Each structure stands twice: as C-alpha cells, then as structure tokens.
Amino acid sequence: MPKISVDHLPEEGFRFLAQLKKHNDRDWFNPRKEQYKELVELPMIQLVHAAAEECRRRGLPLYAKDKSPVMRVYRDIRFSSDKTPYKTHVAAELRRSFSNSNILLYLHFSPSESLLGAGIWQPDRPLLQIWREAIAAQPQRFAGVVGALEKQKLSLNMEHSLSTMPRGFQNHADEVFAPWLKLTSFITSLPLSAKDGTQPGLLDRIVKFALAAKPLLEFGWSLEQAAPERPALGLTSPKRR
C-alpha cells in the first residue's frame, strides 16, 4: 500500500485506473477490489476531507459527505448503451450541506482527464427558474459574479445552453444578459493535466480554485436561502430546461 498523502493522489492509483480502463469487467475487478480501495478510494477520501477542512479554515463552508465521500466506482448502466460496469475515474463533491443544497465543488481525476468544477449542474426546473429570475431582476449583480470569476482567470461555462429564450423570458432576448438566461447549468471549471492529480500541491490548487469560484457559490447559496426548501438533487441527466 502506498504512503497516503493528503496533498495529492498516488501514481499507483492512476496506474490502477488505467488498467481498469483496459480490463473493464467484473472478472478483472472483483479480485482487485481491495487494491482499488487502497490505491484509489482511500487516498481520495483523505484528499477530499483535507480540502474541505482547508476551505472552511479559509472562510468557505464546504464539507465532504459523511458517508461515502467518494462517488461509487460502479456505473449506472440501466439506461446506457455502454454496459461497462466501472468508472475509470475517481470523483467527489463538496457542499455546504448535503441535505438542502445543490451548489457544489466537484473534483474529478483520471489518468486521461482531470478537472475541478464549481456551481450548480442541471438544477430542477423550479430552482432553475429562481436563478433566471434573479439574473433578470439584478443583471448587474450576476455580471459582478462573472466579472469576479474572470479576474481569477475563470469563466462561466456557456456550453449547456438552450438555442432559444426560455419560456417567460422572451422579452429579455435583446438584453446583454440574455445568454445567461438560456443556460441550464451555472458552472465554472478548471481543466487539469494528466499529471496534476499526482503532483504535490494538488490540495492547494483545489482550495485556490474553490476560493476563486466563491462568488458563484455564494450567489447560488443566497438563492437557496430565499427558495422553498427542497432536497438536494445532485447530478441529473441534461434535459431541455
């Protein structure tokens, strides 16, 4: 078992994930399940808890999930044409609350693609409506959020967007903030290189990214406080919103 560091993930874990990608079947994985836990899952748990603790120390109230802080390795293949049973990455979420908040910091690592993300992904329609109404009512406030991200060399992801204005917001079609109203997710992300996950300083990069994304997180939290209470939804499949 490798020496676990809360600063970064072990190279042995990435090598295991690379092998899992080549041998993505139960016959290969089942005898190596304990290796997965030792090389991938446990180091990720340590990293996630360390990141949450450091974020809180620096004024950002983020927590790891009490039980199973790392996402399951098993894929949901019920409605997928891809029947490979295992994920070949390791991921986790940090939230202010796992009972009533959909705003999250997302950590995703693999030998081929790693990234950090923050914001809200595919919220349900009532919550998405609240975001759009807030932007339409106070566009300068949200422009300040976007500007704060840009000062930190981040940007609002415009990929998940409707082609036309959403119902009820057509009269804002000519406004400069119209593209924001078309969004179905409000996220910012930072791509990492294949080596970044195993390099010393990863913990610091995670915390710095979280602090840089703080304006977007706080904007979302303020809307959740004003919205009727609803359970946290987590990640959902993209739908037209």
What characteristics describe this protein?
241 residues; alpha+beta; 5-stranded antiparallel sheet; 8 helices; BirA Bifunctional Protein, domain 2
Give the overall average pLDDT.
92
Task: Determine the structural class based on helices, strands and strand pairing.
Answer: alpha+beta
Helix content: 25-40%
- Our measurement of the CA-to-CA distance between the termini, rounded to an integer number of angstroms, reads 46 Å
What is the strand content?
5-15%
Strand order of the largest sheet: 1-2-3-4-5
Number of domains: 1
CATH architectural designation: 2-Layer Sandwich
Number of DSSP helical runs: 8
How would you characterize the overall build of this protein?
Helix 3 packs across helix 7 and helix 4 crosses helix 5. The protein has 241 residues and is an alpha+beta fold. The chain contains 8 helices and 5 strands; from the N terminus they run H-H-H-E-E-E-E-H-H-H-E-H-H. It has one domain: BirA Bifunctional Protein, domain 2, CATH 3.30.930. Helices cover 39% and strands 12% of the residues.
In short:
39% of the residues lie in helices and 12% in strands.
Write the layout of secondary structure elements.
Elements: H1 11-22, H2 26-29, H3 33-57, E1 63-64, E2 90-95, E3 104-109, E4 114-120, H4 125-137, H5 139-151, H6 178-181, E5 186-192, H7 202-212, H8 214-226
